[in-house]
Amino acid sequence: MDNYNYEALCEIIGQEVVVEDSQGNAVSLKLSDVNKGKIDGEEWEAFSVIYQGGERILYSSGNLHS
To answer: What is the mean pLDDT of residues 11-29?
Structure first.
């Protein structure tokens, strides 16, 4: 996803997306919810994204790429 931002993610809530870690491991998950963060402002966006999967999936700490 080229535009990983609050507005773009809100448009695809409920859809399946492929989430990949920095080692190239990928899984298809449902984008369940997107919530604005408390420190969201004009200089940057702060938000959280909740994904749901059908099986137990463990990722190490770090950033996930969608």
So the answer is: 89
